Amino acid sequence: MIKKYFAVLTALMITISMVLGGCVSDKPPAAEGEGGSDIAPETLTTEPPLTRDDKLIALTFDDGPNPTHTNHILDILEKHNSKATFFIVGYNIEKNVDTIKRAHSMGCEIGNHTDSHKTLTKCTASELREQVDTPNKTIKELTGTEMKLFRAPGGSFKGITEDVGMPLIQWSIDTNDWRSKDASHKGRTEAERNAELKRIADYVIGNAEKGDIVLMHDIYAFTADLCELIIPGLVEKGFKLVTVSEMYEAYGEKLKDGEVYYSIEPEVPSTAPSFAYVSGDAPLQSGKYTVKTNGGALNVRAEPKQDAYVIEKLSSGDTVTVIKSSNGWALVETESSKGWVNAAYLKKN
Q1: How far apart are CA 16 and CA 336, in angstroms?
Q2: Whole-prediction pTM value?
């Protein structure tokens, strides 16, 4: 008797509901994302906002896009829920619109690397303006994406920062991946190639610090394969791989037009030196330094290692700009290069 009572009551409630609601809608069910979900928007799962407590690092790629290698890198980033910043060259835009749109849809950042990769410090004012403005216009027309960051070819920006009119993004870790590209090592065995991949990956992962900007090039198969090691390696160490803009915003610094950026260190107290202590417990702060030797040359090396490749030799009295220092080495910029030197031979101006 009780079961019969509940059955009648259920049928009556359904009938009343249909009457009050009018006829059954002849519209098809709403598609997902068009109001058809029963989940309230505020209850949907979202990534928590980035904060200065997060261990953030920004991978950057120059000279692309490349339809094969850039997409390979995007595959790796997507697999590890990571992002990067791609500084693209204007002449590569039109034939790689789909790749650019894919990167943008993944949350990656698209930056300006000039229209034809000219050295801006050797351009006239009108040439410089064309190199900066043309890709900005092209990318906006073809993809709807606005480029807000700029990287000068070769990192050469002396005297033209204000003319560019965008934040100039340099780097604090240089993989020198272009030196190891396959085209330059045609006789290399697979074992030798794998050893070189591991060497560079170990260097990046071992030296990476919170707030670093890493330089690579997405036009090489070697670099795409390198990312198979670097990206999961950094994630395993607790890093979140984000765009340059995301990292600076999370760490509370606004990127300004005409300013040059190498890295950001969010947790250093204002009373402390900007960088790690070096030999003799003497800290190195960012800024101008003079080389002080006993007459010998000071080697600028590609890595902070005594046997690393020598990029340039400095003489006593030369001036450099210190970017950061670590374990007795200082990352410096000279008039013609950037690399690591023995910090003991630098004196603050």
Answers
A1: 82
A2: 0.69
